TrEMBL record:
GO MF entries: FAD binding; oxidoreductase activity
InterPro entries in the record: CO_DH_flav_C (IPR005107), CO_DH_flav_C_dom_sf (IPR036683), Diverse_Substr_Oxidored (IPR051312), FAD-bd_PCMH (IPR016166), FAD-bd_PCMH-like_sf (IPR036318), FAD-bd_PCMH_sub1 (IPR016167), FAD-bd_PCMH_sub2 (IPR016169), Mopterin_DH_FAD-bd (IPR002346)
Protein name: Carbon-monoxide dehydrogenase medium subunit
Organism field: Jannaschia seohaensis
Keyword annotations: FAD, Flavoprotein, Oxidoreductase
FAD-binding PCMH-type domain: residues covered: 1-171
SMART domains assigned: CO_deh_flav_C
Amino acid sequence: MYDFTLTRPTTIADAVSALQGEDAQPIAGGQTLLPTMKARLAQAETFVSLTGISEMRGISAADGVLTLGGGATHATVAREAAASYPALASLAGRIGDPAVRTRGTVGGSIANNDPSACYPAGALGSGATITATGPNGSREIAADDYFQGMFATALEEGEIITKVAFPIPEKAAYEKMLQPASRFPLVAVFVAKYADGVRVAITGASTDGVFRWSEAEAALSGDFSPAAIEGLTPPSNDMISDLHGTPEYRAHLCKVLTARAVRSAQ
């Protein structure tokens, strides 16, 4: 890696201020950024660590909404959200390995928006609201507007994710087919049933990143059972093709894992 300067602000305001410096970049758990830096695929003169900001680590549930600080680690979510939102806690508890879960953060995962990351599926499947804070203050972004393609988001320059609010559904589940080498999902599905309908978010399958399977949502909103999607399969033309699976295989997994999620939803 190249030489760089690391700053460790203790407040959101100080972090935002530090990010206005020339060639400054935020770093949370560093689970994606550090390997990328080691490969010399990313570099900045200054890295602004977000791990020392206590106001970004809280987790709370009130009025049917689970709110996670952007700096909350996966391990903390798995432990502290289990009672209020079991499906999201299950998602967090199966990310990577213990080392990744101890360091990786909610905000880091959603900000990076890896096309095979788990948290984007949880946020999009829950219809979450993402709070981004930058030099012009804070703003709320609906998950449907936030995820904009592979590694692309609605975040603007100098903004960081300070919290994410997840409406708690009546039932939900997360199912994934694990790619054992990377421990990313080959395909994963988050299903959430709300009073006004069902949301189905899929990660790991599409070249455009996380997406909602609207056809399955419509069918499951009328009949929340695996039988409702028996005749459905998402189109494979935009699915990822690599040594782990063809586009058709990934499309098939979308259907299989959605059915499993519906079956196991609680």
